[in-house]
Design a protein that fits this description.
CATH architecture: 3-Layer(aba) Sandwich
Number of strands: 13
Structural class: alpha/beta
Helix content: 25-40%
Distance between the termini: 20 Å
Oligomer: single chain
Strand content: 15-25%
Strand order of the largest sheet: 1-9-8-5-4-2-3-12
Radius of gyration: 21 Å
Number of domains: 1
CATH topology: Aspartate Aminotransferase, domain 2
Length: 386
């Protein structure tokens, strides 16, 4: 491909980190993962971080944990508000835990919540607002917090596509009770596969530790907010207190993460430099709607929504493929069009006009931690030939 969706963020440091783990003979979750969690939480100014096997399982644990808090836990049928454009595993844990999902339209420019629609959608039954920071763009959390105000509503963040983005100089992923991150190959950093949940709440932290590994007590400190632990190490080895999973990360992923974390500032800086060029080239091209930055985006990639009848997406995509430019839909498009919705308890608030327009007319090209000026210029040249 002349213009790829993603490229490897690894160097010799990551290869050496893997070899270090191999030499140790301990491949399962251990000291490298723990150190990565500690450094990750400090980097993003959060008290606690829990690494798991993927951003998808991070979302699963985030939702699951709220069913086991001692005070006012979630229960089946509780209402959760979500944007209609995101990845599947934003939504699937909600169905799996029997929650009532309310889909709200997006803003056609920011691609995050349409804030007027969100305000209208909040009801007396709303227990959770799950904000998705799409393609590196943080939500306007000032407005979201005004909408929540003194209501008994939990704010969560799916920040899997937006590591390093900020709103009012605060990292996205830290505005809610919990925030999730992904370190899949195509994301801002890569640990092969990997995810992270951050929170400032100690009880949530302890619940996550147990749920991540079988629901057992072994990973909990002796004094914790889930259960009483005995001094009998033999008994505590296989004692199960929550209906958990095994979504632990590999020790190699923790070791790689430690090296990747050091590189995040430079990665984000280059992504923003690439975005500056992309924006200058397309800001006045009225054939397309491009994503409007809310504050400090980490620019996962570049979305374009065709805004003219003179260009047909099918023909445009074929043209890009012929010119070796890799492209994809904008995340899932309008998620409510998927057959899996037949398994959901859900409703759609008003119309999903913008989500559907994006679904029918949008496409996505990649960004990178490397300078891709030549690729962006090549893309612009290819579009000029339409």
């Amino acid at each position: 491909m002349e213009y790829k969706l993603a490229t490897s963020t690894w160097g010799e440091e990551e290869i050496n980190a893997i070899q270090k783990v191999i030499n140790s003979g301990m491949y399962t979750m251990g000291s490298e993962v723990k150190l990565f969690e500690n450094k990750f939480s400090k980097y993003f100014n959060s008290k606690y971080a829990v690494m798991c096997s993927s951003g998808s399982t991070a979302n699963l644990l985030m939702i699951a944990s709220l069913f086991f808090t001692k005070k006012n836990p979630l229960k089946k049928g509780d209402e959760v508000i979500v944007p209609a454009v995101s990845w599947s595993t934003t939504y699937l844990p909600l169905q799996q835990y029997g929650l009532k999902v309310k889909f709200v339209d997006i803003d056609i420019e920011t691609l995050n919540f349409d804030l007027n629609q969100l305000k209208e959608a909040v009801s007396n039954q709303t227990r959770v607002i799950l904000a998705v920071n799409l393609l590196g763009n943080p939500n306007d959390f000032s407005v979201i917090n005004e909408i929540i105000n003194d209501k008994n509503i939990i704010l969560l963040e799916d920040n899997c596509e937006s590591m390093g983005s900020k709103y009012n100089d605060q990292f996205s992923g830290t505005f809610g009770l919990m925030g999730t991150f992904s370190s899949f190959f195509s994301h801002h950093i890569s640990t092969m596969e990997g995810g992270m949940i951050i929170t400032d709440e100690e009880e949530i932290y302890h619940i996550l530790l147990s749920l991540r590994a079988h629901g057992w007590t072994r990973d909990l400190p002796k004094t914790n907010l889930v259960c009483d632990k005995s001094e009998n190490w033999f008994q505590e080895s296989f004692r199960f207190v929550l209906p958990g999973y095994n979504v632990r990360p590999l020790e190699m992923s923790g070791a790689i993460g430690l090296e990747q974390l050091k590189k995040i500032p430079n990665f984000i800086s280059q992504r923003r430099q690439n975005a500056k060029l992309f924006y200058e080239l397309f800001k006045d091209d009225d054939r397309f709607i491009i994503q409007k930055e809310i504050d400090f985006s980490s620019w996962f990639g570049f979305s374009l929504i065709i805004n003219t009848d003179k260009i047909k997406r099918k023909k445009l995509l074929a043209h890009l493929i012929d010119n070796k430019i890799e492209t994809r839909p904008i995340v899932s498009g309008n998620f409510t069009k998927n057959e899996v919705l037949k398994f959901f308890d859900y409703e759609i608030h008003n119309e999903l006009k913008n989500s559907e327009f994006l679904d029918e007319n949008g496409f996505f090209i990649g960004n990178s931690h490397e300078n891709i000026e030549s690729q962006i210029l090549y893309f612009k040249k290819c579009l000029a030939a339409l």
